[in-house]
Amino acid sequence: MNKTQLTNVIKRYCDNKDFEGAKNYVHSFGPQIKNFDVDKELEKIDKLIKGPKKPESKPEIKEE
User: Fold this and answer.
1) Does the global pTM surpass 0.90?
2) How far, in Å, CA of 19 to CA of 10, rounded?
3) Which domain holds residue 10?
4) Burial annotation 23-41 (CB, 10 A radius, 16+ → b, else e)
5) Residue 44 within a domain
6) 62 belongs to a structural domain
């Protein structure tokens, strides 16, 4: 498996919301691939798990 193939597999797993499967592929094949940053890829997956940051809502000021 090369870097492009691994990246495509990880993307497909993430698109299907199977983040644990994606992490398993990173752990299994990532260290064997030259120039593949395992930690960076795991951080990307963790960010997808957490979802986008929601802006903090300001408390509404009610006028009387």
Assistant:
1) no
2) 9
3) 3-50
4) bebbeebbeebeebeeeeb
5) yes
6) no
